[in-house]
Automatic annotation (TrEMBL):
Protein name: 5-formyltetrahydrofolate cyclo-ligase
Keywords: Ligase
Top EC category: ligase
Organism: Taklimakanibacter albus
Enzyme Commission number: 6.3.3.2
Top-level lineage group: Bacteria
Record carries keyword Ligase: yes
Length: 199
């Protein structure tokens, strides 16, 4: 797939790519189901905890997203402080609140599970990023809201952060259409293992 030069062309390519990506993800989800999350949890992250209080944001699986909860549970047992993202407003970066598997959740926008409002906020050192598709350059196709791109851009101004895109292996595409504001991933993790992007 060729990357378009004009922003309107890129947006059109992204819209069309999302249709194919949704179908690929739905197929992988139907084929692998909960096994994919267990397979995911078998893989080591391609980074080390920098401090005893190192924090990592996951995501509560929504619709056909791969299930990262078994991985989060393992990371908690290894000493990571974990969190979930919270959408605060359209056009705003995400907020993160501490949460670990087994703790209570509330419901946020789109009825997604989020930590309770009483949970402390934190700025994660590592983000597990959901996506519709990815390529070997480390670019992801998101849902179109730009939440993770804005969030990563802001966090990367403040401190070193590592963005790990997480998806089914079947969600890989040859080339994700890229806009100027798209933030690249540092690593990609699928049920088959870790992918180091080549840019």
């Amino acid at each position: 797939m060729q990357v378009a030069k004009r922003s309107g062309d890129v947006l059109d390519l992204k819209r069309r790519a999302r249709t194919a990506a949704n179908a690929a993800r739905a197929h992988a989800h139907k084929t692998l189901g909960d096994r994919a999350g267990l397979m995911l949890a078998q893989h080591e992250l391609p980074i080390e905890r920098r401090t005893d209080r190192a924090s990592l944001s996951g995501f509560y699986p929504y619709q056909a997203e791969i299930n990262v909860l078994p991985l989060l549970a393992r990371l908690v047992s290894e000493g990571w402080q974990t969190a979930l993202p919270v959408v605060m407003a359209k056009g705003a970066p995400l907020t993160f609140r501490a949460w670990a598997p087994g703790e209570p959740t509330g419901r946020g926008i789109w009825d997604i599970h989020i930590p309770l409002e009483t949970a402390p906020e934190l700025q994660p050192d590592v983000l597990l990023v959901p996506m519709l598709a990815f390529d070997r350059r480390g670019y992801r196709l998101g849902y179109g809201g730009g939440f993770y791109d804005r969030t990563l851009a802001e966090l990367r101004k403040l401190k070193p952060v590592t963005a790990i895109g997480v998806a089914y292996a079947e969600q890989e595409m040859a080339e994700v259409p890229v806009s100027d504001y798209d933030e690249p991933l540092d690593w990609i993790l699928t049920e088959r293992g870790v992918i180091e992007p080549k840019r």
